[in-house]
Write a structure and sequence with these properties.
The protein is α/β, with parallel strands linked by helices and about 325 residues long. It has a single domain, classed as D-Maltodextrin-Binding Protein, domain 2 (3-Layer(aba) Sandwich), CATH 3.40.190. Helices cover about 45% and strands about 20% of the residues. Strands 3, 4, 5, 6, 7, 8 and 9 form a seven-stranded mixed beta sheet that branches. It has a two-stranded parallel ribbon with strand order 1-2. Strand 5, helix 6 and strand 6 form a beta-alpha-beta unit. Helix 2 runs antiparallel to helix 10, helix 4 packs across helix 12 and helix 6 packs antiparallel against helix 11. The two termini are about 35 Å apart. Bound molecules: succinic acid. The site of succinic acid (SIN) has 10 residues, from loops.
């Protein structure tokens, strides 16, 4: 999505939210309440499995009253389109990668700072802190109410050549998500970043339109990037996780018993999915290795230190926008 389009959406969101009636009417209908919930990854990924579990538990608890329609694998729309659709009430729930909210809030850029979080436990700790929890309401002015953060996992680089040192990335075209921090990260290692929707990555790798990408094992394996990419580096250099959000007006309009019930189920499935996300990614890594089509390059501590040093300027570049306090809170979580 272009900057202009994002800017327009932001303007419309703020306008919609400002015009919104604070006394929202409660939905009164004999028809089931429909919750359309699209996402772009495969059903077997952490996001896919947790979304399906939400659907199952909600429909078991509210039979005939609430119908959750999960659309996996980008069947219904791209992530960018889902932000717009949620704002306009065409869908009711999203779980979109935190990296894709750049034009709506700068605060989520914290999750893209390279090597900030050393593992999922550090992310979890930060998200559970007061500073982390405050991010759930960072987009209320735009009409998005955050219900939870769901983990995917840690990211690794993949390329048509082994990347042992940052210099190896010089001149490579890297697919990235819609994030200025990720753009700066790739530029800091001499790469040429290309913002691209997830659903286009396989073909771009296959045709050589891009040389490299970064993602989690579950996304890499389920999207079969190993068919078109021979080398994956165990770099653990960043995080992919999701902002699970609803249209705030829709949420406030739900009958109280349903809203409270859905919130309880959201807490339960978040714990369920987040507790399993590491195992799901490990499983994908093993399956990828078993295909015998790609090699996983293990980087030494000295090599990893060079990657860390190469991307360090990105922290300085974004520290004012993200906020030094937030970065400090995240660093404390990582220690
Ligand atoms: C996702 O995990 O939802 C997609 C991440 C990406 O676009 O790479």
């Amino acid at each position: 999505m272009t900057f202009k389009k994002h800017g327009l959406i932001l303007f419309l969101l703020v306008l919609l939210s400002a015009c919104g009636d604070s006394t929202v009417n409660t939905l009164q209908t004999d028809e089931p309440i429909i919750i359309k919930f699209p996402h772009v990854v495969a059903p077997g990924t952490p996001n896919g499995q947790t979304a399906s579990r939400f659907e199952q538990l909600v429909e078991a608890r509210f039979p005939g009253r609430v119908d959750v329609e999960v659309y996996p694998s980008g069947q219904l729309m791209t992530d960018d389109d889902s932000l717009e659709a949620l704002a306009f009430g065409e869908i009711q729930m999203i779980a979109v990668s935190l990296s894709k909210f750049d034009r709506l809030t700068r605060a989520f850029q914290i999750f893209d700072l390279p090597f900030l979080f050393s593992n999922i436990a550090a992310v979890e700790h930060f998200q559970a802190s007061d500073e982390g929890k405050s991010l759930l309401t960072a987009l209320v002015d735009s009409g998005f109410l955050g219900l939870a953060f769901w983990h995917n996992g840690m990211k690794h680089f993949g390329a048509h050549i082994p990347l042992r040192l940052p210099n190896d990335a010089e001149g490579l075209r890297f697919r990235i998500m819609e994030s200025d921090v990720l753009q700066a990260q790739m530029e800091s290692i001499g790469g040429n970043p290309q913002k691209m929707a997830y659903g286009e990555v396989y073909q771009a790798l296959q045709t050589g339109a891009i040389d490299a990408q970064e993602n989690t094992w579950s996304n890499i394996y389920s999207s079969k990037f190993h068919e078109v990419q021979p080398y994956f580096m165990l770099s653990n250099h960043g995080y992919v996780g999701y902002f699970v959000a609803v249209n705030e007006q829709f949420w406030k309009s739900l009958p109280n018993d349903i809203r409270f019930g859905l919130e309880e189920i959201m807490v339960e499935v978040t714990e369920w999915g987040n507790a399993r996300s590491i195992a799901m990614n490990d499983d994908s890594k093993e399956k990828l290795l078993a295909t015998g089509r790609s090699e996983i390059v293990i980087l030494t501590d000295q090599e990893l230190e060079q990657w860390r040093m190469a991307v360090q300027p990105v922290w300085e570049q974004f520290s004012d926008e993200i906020g030094a306090d937030l970065i400090e809170a995240a660093q404390i979580s990582s220690n």
